[in-house]
C-alpha cells in the first residue's frame, strides 16, 4: 500500500495510541485533500473505534502551520499535520507531522554533495522536509566517500512531534546552534548552502535569513542543480518598504496566525513599537490576507503581518498598502535601528528594545527618503493630546456635513482612523434631507430593488 | 583689505541705514567672481589677527579647476564714503561708514538655486554683463528672479578690456554695443516696475551703470569722468554726467555741444570723446611702452605710480596704470549707494516676504526693520561647518535680533499657522558672523544683517523661518521659488554593503547642503539623487562621496530619466468587475485638452480652486461643458497632478459611496501607470456608468478600490497609450564657425533648432533648440569637442514631448524604453495585457 506507506499510517497510529489521544484532527493541505478519506479510514482501522478522527481542510491561515483554531472546534486533543510544514511551535495542542516521504536518489544526490564539498571547504546541507527521511542515509553515503570532512554539515530535523511551548520565548540556543524552518545544526553562520528540494517559501526563508551565503539548489525530481540568484533585489525592495513604513501614520496589524506560539506577545510588541513611534495601530484579523480584504481599510498606510516565517513575506503590488514582517516593523518603528543586512522572517526573533522609554525624549525630526526631506517625528508627549480623540470625531463630522472638506485623498495630517473618516466625502447613511439627491426629479418613493443572485440579477438575464 | 575686530564690525551692524546687502548675479563666465575678487582685495573685512592672509575668496578646489562658481559665498566689505559723494546722497544715513554684505553667486544654470537663495537675503543686485556677449539667457533668468523678489539692480558692463585689446572696436561702435546691453537689460527691468519699488531701470547718466574690466581690476562710472571734467569745463557735475551719455555730441573744432551728430568729421559723441578715447589712448600708450608720453598724461590725471611700478612694461604696466587711475572697487562701491538699505528695502519687500496678514505686528516689524520688534529671520541655506556633519543655518534677520542662547520657534516649509506640524522650539547655541574666512561668535545680530547660527541644523532641512519662542501668532516668511527643477536622477549604492549607514547619513547631509538636490528612494530600494542638471549632479556626487561619506566608495547608476504615460485618443468604454463580481465599473479614458495639463502644473487649475472659478476657466479656455467642470472628482497623482476623474454618470445609485474609493484608486493608478509604472499625465478618466450591489457590505472599499484601479488601467490601455519624455530648452552661444558642429551634435541627439540669431554687433550666434533630456547626458562634452570648445550650452527643462511610437510594441523606440524602465524597476518583462484588467459581462 504505497499510499499508507507514504502517509506513514502505521507510525501515526502508534503515536496516537502511545499518547492515548481520543480525538484527533487530521490537517490536510488543499492539494492532498483527495487522499484524506483513504488515510482516515486506514487510521481508523489501525487505531480501533476508541479514537475519533476529524478531517480539517481549508486552513484559515497558511497550510504549513497547525490550525489550532479549527482543531479546537472539534475539541481535538491532537493534530496530525500532513504535507509541507514550517514546524513553528504550537500554542495549545500537541501536533504530529507527516511530511509525505518523497524518494531521494541517494547516489546522485551524494555525488552532488561530494562535488560541492570538493569545491568549497564548507557546506551546509538543508532540505525540504519531505526528504528528511533519506538524509541519514545520504550522510552515511557521503561520509564513506569523503570521510570526516569538518566543513560539511547536515542539518537535522528538530522533531516530528511538537508539544505546546510553555514559555513564550524561544529555547535559548547555544551560540553556534542555528534553527530555521524545522531544521537545526551546529556550526557557524553558513557561507554556502545546498538546498535539496523545490523552490518555495521554505527556501526563500533560508535565503533571506542567510543572505550572505551562496545557495545552490538540487532538485531531486529533475536531478538538476541550479545556482540560486541572490535575493538582494528582494531585500532592497523590503528596505524601501521599511522606509515607507517610517512615514506611515496609521499601522494595521494583521493577525496572520492563531497558532504559532508567541503570536500574542508579538502583536503586543508591535503595538508597543508603533505606539512609542507616535503612530496609531489597529489590529485586524481577516484570515488569509488578500488585496480585496485589506483594501477595506484604506486608512492604514502600512500593514504588519504577524505570521509564521513561511507565510510572513508578502510582496504583491496589488495590495493597496504594503505588508511588512515583524522584523521589518521593528526596523521601521524603533528609533535608532538601522538595517545592517541581516534579516529574519521569524517574529520570535524580534524583541522589544530594552528600554522603550528612551525614545520619548527624542523630538528630533527624521529624514524621510520617501518625501526627500525632514518630517517631524511625533513623540509620546504629543500623543496625549490626542487621547481625547472623541472630540476629533465630532469636530470632523461637523465640518464635513457643511461641506467644507472638499479635498479628498489622504492628507498627511491623517493620524487616526477618525481623522480619515472625517476627511471622507461619504460617511455612511446620510440622514439629512439633502442626502436624498439620488433621483433628480424629486421622486423619493421607494422602488423595488433587484432580485436574484448577485452575480446575475433577474433583470440582467 | 580692512582689518577689524568682531566688536568693531558688530558696531556697524546696528546702523541699519548704512548696510547694503547685495548679490552679484550674471550669466556663467561673465566675470562675477573676478570682479568680486577685486572688491574684496580693496575693501574686504578680515579679522585683525589674520592680517597676513591674502586669498579671501578661497574657493573649493573643483571651482578653481572648472573655473566656475558652484556655491555662493558671502563676504563683508567695509567702505567709507567720501564727503563729496555723500553730498549727492539724499537718503537716510548714519555717518559715512558702510557695511556691504556681498554674495557672489554661481552663473551656471544648474546652480541657479544658489542664486535664488542669495537673492532672498539681499536687497540689491550687481548685474554683471559681458560687453561682447551681452544679455544672455541666464542673465535674463536671474534678473527676472531678482526683480520678482523686488531686488533693486545696478548694472556693470564688464570685460571692457576685450573691447580695447581683443576687438579693437572704435568709439562709436563700442558705445552702440554698450547701449544695446543696457537697453536689453532695461527691457526686462521695465516689466517689473511697481509703485513702491519705483523705476528699476538703470542709466549710465544716473550712475547706476558701471563699466568694468574685472580681469584688469579697473572700472568707472560716468561720475568719475563727470567730476574730472566738471571742474575743467566749469560746468555742473550733474549736467556733465548727462552729456557723457546718450545723444550728446561734442565738436572739439567748434567747442560746442549738440544733441545730433552735425556731420562734421570732428563731431564725436560725448562718451567717445571724453571717456572712451582717453582710455583707449592710455591703454595704447602703455601697451606700446611709450613711457615718455605716459608720465605727463598721468600727471594731468593726478595719477601717481609707485616707483617699482614704473619699471613695468606692456600689459602689466597698463593694468597697474588703469588700476591706479580707475580702481574697480571705488567705482563699484560707489554704486552701492544707489542700492537700498535694509531699512528702505524692507518697506516694500515685506509684501513679497511675509505670508501672514500685512497689518500684524510681524509685518510691521519687517516693514520698519525694527531691531526691537519680534524676531523674523529667514534661513536661506545650510552651510557645512568644519566639524563633520554639522551645519550652520545661514540667513537674514528681517526684524528683531537673534542672540546666542535665544529660544526660537522654527517654522519649517510645511508649517501651517495654528498647527504643530513642522514646528520646533530650540535654542540658538551660537550666533556667528564671518570675517573673511574666519568665523567669529557675536552676542547678537540685529535686523538687516546676515547671520549664521549653530545648533539648529537638526531641525532645518533647507529653509525655515525663525521667530521668538513666544510669538505663536507669527506666520512664516514665504518659501523661495526656484527657476529650475530636479529632473536628472541617478541611483547610488555603496560598494561595500556595510557602508549603508554611511550612505544614508551622507545623503541626509547632501540634502541639507544644497538648496536644490533631492534625495529619495525608488520603489526598488535604490537611493536616488535628483539634481537640476548633469553638472549639478556631478558636483553633488563628489560632495557626497568626499565630504559627507568620508570617502567611502559609491556606485552610481547611469542617469535615470522619468517618463510620463498618457493616452493618444479617447478609449472605448471598458468595464471591470469587482473581486466578488457584484459590482461593475464602466470607464473611459481620454487625453486632456492641449494646455490643460500645463495649466494644472502651474496651479492655474487645481483642486483647491473655487469650483465656480475652475469651471469658468475650463469652459472658456478649454471648451468644457460648464456643468461637467463641476463634476471633477479629483486631481492626481498626489491630489494635484495633471490627471482627472470626471463623473459622467446619470442617476446612479450609491455613487457617492464609492467616490472615496475611486479617488483612492485613482491616486494610486495615476502614480503608477499601466505601461511602465511611471506617473500618468494628461489623462481624464470618465466614470460612465456604475453598477453596484444593493447590499452595502458588497460594495465597500475592498471591492471598489482594486476594481477602479483595474478599470483605469484597462481604459488607459484602450486609449492608445503613449510615453511622454522631458525635453530641455538648450541655449548655445557660439561664433559662426562653430555652428556646423552644433547642428551636427544636435541632429545626432534628436534635438531640433528653434531659433538662430546673430547678436547684433558681435560675431556670436545664439542658438535655441529643444533637446530630449535622455539625450542630454554628455551633450556639453560632445558639443565642446565638436566646436573645439567654443560652444557652451545651458539646459533648462521646458516641456513634455510625446514619443510618437507605440510603447506596447516592443520593437519601437518607445517599446525599448518601456522594457528598460520595467527592467530597472524589477517588473515583469511584458506589459500586463488588457485582458487582466478588463472583464466581460
TrEMBL record, chain B:
It comes from the Eukaryota. It is found in: Cytoplasm. One of its GO terms (biological process) is translational elongation. Residues 17-253 form the Tr-type G domain. It catalyses: GTP + H2O = GDP + phosphate + H(+). Its main location: cytoplasm. One of its GO terms (molecular function) is translation elongation factor activity. Pfam families: EFG_C, EFG_III, EFG_IV, GTP_EFTU, GTP_EFTU_D2. Keywords: Cytoplasm, Elongation factor, GTP-binding, Hydrolase, Nucleotide-binding, Protein biosynthesis. SUPFAM superfamilies: EF-G C-terminal domain-like, P-loop containing nucleoside triphosphate hydrolases, Ribosomal protein S5 domain 2-like, Translation proteins. Transmembrane segments: none annotated. One of its GO terms (cellular component) is cytosol. This is Tr-type G domain-containing protein. It comes from Selaginella moellendorffii (Spikemoss).
